[in-house]
Amino acid sequence: MAERTLTGQLGGPVPAGIEALADNEKQDLSDALREARHRQAKALAEAGEEGLKYVPALLRGTIRKVVGL
C-alpha cells in the first residue's frame, strides 16, 4: 500500500533505494512527503496573500480570481 502511495506522490516508479526500505519505513516516508506538500501549499498560499498587499484594494478580488487564490 505504501509503495503505491509513494508511486503516486513521486509521479513515477519508486527508486531502487526506496524499494529496499521496510513497509513501515515506506509508510513513514509517504506520510512525511504528504505533510511536506501540505506545508508547501500553505506557505505558497500565505505568500500569495502577502503579495496581494501590494495590489490596490479595488483590484485584489479580481487578481485573486485570476491567479486562483
N- and C-termini, Cα separation: 33 Å
Total strand segments = 0
Largest sheet properties: none
> What is the overall shape?
rod-shaped
Helix and strand run: HHHH
Using only CA atoms, what is the Rg? 18 Å
Quickly count the helices.
4
What portion of residues is helical? over 70%
Q: Would you tell me the structural class of the helices and strands? A: mainly alpha
Residue-averaged pLDDT, rounded?
86
**Strand content of the residues, in percent?**
under 5%
Question: What are the segments in which pLDDT stays under 50 over at least 5 consecutive residues?
Answer: none
Q: What would you say about this model in short?
A:
The protein is mainly α and 69 residues long. It has helices at residues 2-10, 16-19, 23-51, 57-67.
Task: Describe the model.
The chain is mainly alpha-helical and 69 residues long. The chain contains four helices and no strands. It has helices spanning 2-10, 16-19, 23-51, 57-67. Helix 1 (2-10) packs parallel to helix 3.
Secondary structure blueprint with pairings:
Elements: H1 2-10, H2 16-19, H3 23-51, H4 57-67
Helix pairs in contact: 1-3
Output the keywords.
mainly alpha; 77% helix
